[in-house]
Design a protein that fits this description.
The chain is built from 17 helices and 14 strands. The chain is an alpha+beta fold. Among the domains are: about 90 residues, Arc Repressor Mutant, subunit A, CATH 1.10.10; about 90 residues, no CATH class. It has a five-stranded mixed sheet, with helices on one face. A three-stranded mixed sheet has the order 1-8-9. Strand 8 and strand 9 form a beta hairpin. The radius of gyration is 22 Å and the shape is globular.
Length: about 375
């Protein structure tokens, strides 16, 4: 049975409201930490893209702001969504790690056999990791060397010598470590509980509803399918938990009709959504930006089907009123924009956004338009 809707809006209104929530129209005045908190997470597999994802949402910014925020503990880095590294808020990021840890993958027979760590071994193993990091960050290899001083973990040294990518993940999910700044090009690990901003890992049934609300406040109006994509795919919360948390929010959520699609927002945002006017903004975004990753690249109201392959492959995005309308690429001082949108090309807006990007990058850019 379809629930009764409390407002009807167009996709243009919905995306305009989302642009404001994601600090894209108007541009935000938030700190780096504020941008990360607003988005919930920022993918950090490519630091250049992560830096631009944050800076493009700020009216003013400086090179290195994101790296500085990480070094000062204002943001943290951990393996979160879909097993990838993300920047998270230390105050609120624990809710996503709680969902990730819910599956307890380290207890699977395949893990036990491969790493020779039984479920009962993990409390002591986690303690040994924290102890090894007590004097400060270590590279993955250095951590392996420290753990090898314990007879029980000597067999893991080759794992750490090879990067220990999979073994490190549950240590971040459980709040033992976070990823620090690189040293000599090498990934470093550091204790998370020494960060005074860290709020810990909440109970999963407390984390779940809060994660749903946070998602809807940044990426709404959204459907249950969007919630399953963001909080279920590549995580360990499980669909039954997500449905239970969603239903438990009850009147905290409002139901809206978006051109025939039943979607949801946090109730306190309903009035602003209903009053939103279509945006006129054109923005350049980096590849794999949260604008497209949050709802998923299959969301055709954000990423037209004709552009999905390019977006999935990490193309830089030209966003027009919230919809991907083309791609951009820079080579030297030439910025090439490939216009693929259905609407007429907005040459003046493209020139203005090119000038803004040039200011962010500290370069003189010459715009070249193709279609």
């Amino acid at each position: 049975m379809t629930p009764s809707t409390e407002a009807s809006v167009t996709w243009a209104q919905a995306l305009a409201w989302r642009l404001e929530r994601q600090l894209l129209d108007p541009l935000g005045s938030e700190s780096v930490a504020g941008v990360v908190r607003r988005l919930g997470a920022v993918l950090s597999m490519d630091e250049t893209l992560a830096d631009l994802a944050v800076r493009t949402r700020c009216a003013t910014s400086r090179p290195g702001d994101l790296a500085k925020a990480l070094a000062e503990g204002e943001v943290i880095k951990a393996f979160a969504f879909r097993g990838s590294m993300h920047y998270l808020s230390p105050e609120e990021g624990g809710r996503y790690l709680a969902l990730r840890a819910a599956g307890r993958q380290w207890e699977l027979p395949s893990w036990v056999e491969h790493y020779r760590l039984r479920p009962s071994d993990w409390p002591d193993f986690r303690g040994a990791v924290r102890e090894a990091l007590s004097d400060g960050p270590l590279t993955v290899v250095e951590l392996g060397e420290a753990l090898a001083r314990h007879r029980a973990y000597r067999h893991l040294k080759p794992v750490f010598d090879e990067g220990a990518g999979t073994l490190i993940k549950p240590l971040t999910w459980q709040g033992d470590v976070s990823l620090g700044t690189r040293r000599g090009g090498q990934l470093t690990l550091q204790r998370l509980d020494t960060n005074p901003r860290w709020h810990g890992i909440p109970d999963v049934d407390d984390a779940g509803p809060r994660a749903i609300e946070a998602y809807l406040r940044a990426y709404g109006p959204a459907t249950p399918d969007h919630l399953h994509y963001w909080l279920g795919n590549g995580l360990s919360a499980g669909s039954k938990r997500i449905i239970t948390w969603f239903n438990g929010l009850g009147d905290r959520l409002a139901t809206v009709d978006v051109e025939g699609t039943t979607a949801y927002v946090v109730r306190e945002d309903l009035k602003a959504l209903d009053a939103a006017l279509p945006s006129q903004a054109l923005r350049y975004l980096p590849g794999h930006d949260q604008w497209v990753m949050g709802p998923g690249t299959k969301e055709v109201h954000v990423t037209p089907a004709s552009l999905r392959q390019s977006v999935t492959r990490k193309a830089n995005l030209v966003l027009v009123d919230g919809v991907v309308g083309g791609t951009w690429a820079r080579k030297g001082d030439v910025l090439t924009v490939t216009w693929q949108g259905a609407r007429p090309r907005l040459d003046e807006a493209l020139e203005q956004e090119t000038a803004r990007l040039a200011g962010i990058l500290g370069l003189d850019l010459n715009l070249r338009l193709t279609s």
